[in-house]
Specification:
Chain lengths: ~200, ~90
Amino acid sequence: MSNTVVAESPLVRFKLNERAAKGTGNAGVIVNERALLGHVNLRGDAQDPRFVSAASQVLGVDVPTAANTVHEAQGNTVYWLGPNEWLIVTTGERATALVGELRKALAGLFVAVTEVSGGQTVLVFRGRSARALFTKECPLDLHPRSFRVGQCAQTHLAKAPILIRQLDGEPTYEIVVRRSFSDYLWLWLESAAAEYGLAMSK
Amino acid sequence: MLLITCPWCGVRSQTEFSYGGEAHIVRPLDTDAMNDAEWGDYVFMRKNSKGRHLEQWNHAMGCRRWFNAERDTVTYRIKSVYKVGEKAPGAAE
Ligand SMILES: [Zn+2]
């Protein structure tokens, strides 16, 4: 019996790295998984300056208090999820230590710091048809007048709840999807992106 | 498809929301003193208004907050939304 624990992406059975080795060709949608990152859910009172400043200091980036915005610095990406809830995405190695540092800095305040790394994964969508793909079954208005770099939103893609943000003006989109929905979402993606050509990249 | 305004996230598709029934139903405090009729009224009886209706919605696939909406049950038009704890529009209480 092995006593080694190997972390695997929820998408491991689709062999994305093997498919990435084939190149992207003329594909309209190019996807890469940012697998096995560190994910931390943070809850606290955005109205309490002690909470906001202590958390921001640990993270090296201001906790965003404006709805549906995202701040990124020092290797940490902090997404607004609700008026008292944030998601922090960091490296896989950093997550556990970050939880400890946040709990220490926020001790005595009414907060919750929960590591959720195993529960979700991150996908990045590039290519000339990336927006067309999302407009098929994501009800969010992705037009630049209403969704821009620096914003994030929780919505759904097909029937899977996602957290989405735009990374650049191409546009490139990044989504966070739960482990339990990722298999379903990938199968949807294979058929929905077929008409544009779907390829993987590293 | 309705467009519903979440007080935090702004205008979003109806598919992101779930309906939570009539708003402003307050749980009775002195529950030991209540008879069956009063319990039945609290648990089951709802207004079923034709026209203006104050109701709860949850932004289930968004920020997951509950809020209240003022909706016309005839036209489905949502006239206003407000956060839990805020007074209903035009309410005297
Ligand atoms: Zn919302």
